[in-house]
Description:
alpha+beta; 3-stranded antiparallel sheet
Amino acid sequence: xSTDNVVDTKRRRFLVSxxxxxxxxxxxxxxxxxxxxxxxxxxAKNAGAPVEVDISKLEEGRLLIVEWQSKPxxxxxxxxxxxxxxxxxxxxxRDPASENANQQPAYAQNASRSIKPEISxxxxxxxxxxxxxxxxxxxAPADLGADWLGGFFCPCHSSRFDLAGRVFQxxxxxxxxxVPPHKYLSDNVIVIGEDEGVA
Length: 199
């Protein structure tokens, strides 16, 4: 028997083991970026993150718009007259008592649909087809009629909402505007996207 035909089993085991280790390491280098590409980006994580809003400079009757989860969130400081006017609109509204629990957290299922009556927090997307209504705080404008006491008007299909985000009867929007989860860190700081420990 010639020496060329003798199998060096130790060398063969070493080569097989070395090749297996190199292949496993290579597979790891390929798998890590592939698997990490499935993870949401930092931008995507931040898009759903809670948003802190300072409302200390928000004047009565004014609207502040912030972005949360890629949606506009409206914050309005309402006057005492606006709050009194809300109580007179019930017979014109589809869901005046906000009975649809999907449209607001339990702590906002009240006459003002808010934690603090003077501060309204709403997602600014029409519940009909997802348009963004316009803020119309004016009283009795020519285009909206003498009974208009201020609110939000969607020019796309003429849906109307009062200043608590409650939908009027006879318009395409089926439900009230959504009240997002929120809480107060102080009198002037709201966190949109969290509602634990409501003040």
